[in-house]
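Appendix B. Raw example, untouched.
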Amino acid sequence: MQLFNQINARKIGPELNVFSGFFNNFLFIAVFCSTFVIQMTLVEIGGIAVKTHSLTMHQNLICFILGSLELVWGLVIKFIPESLFSCVSLDEKPMEEEQLERTLSNALKKSSTLRKQGTKKKTPLGE
């Protein structure tokens, strides 16, 4: 899936043919081939070091077919109208204090601080 996603990521926007100009970018081809070789090497001979077992040709074919579905998924995503995502805002502005108080990370920080304060050991001098 990672390899086919690399192909999908070449064309962002309304262009549907992700293979146009594929062989014109030699750097992309080098990265693509390197990724393929490294992944195959890790799976086939990685063994105990990467906790894998070699795959049969049939299993590799199944992986290839499942991974190629990434191309179909990328095509489906391009047909989803952008208006469906109008409720999602990507504005990067600082949170207001009230919003910050309601975040999960802030609640976790507070509980961690409370735990640390509750477990402080008192010294014999009362410090």
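End of appendix B.
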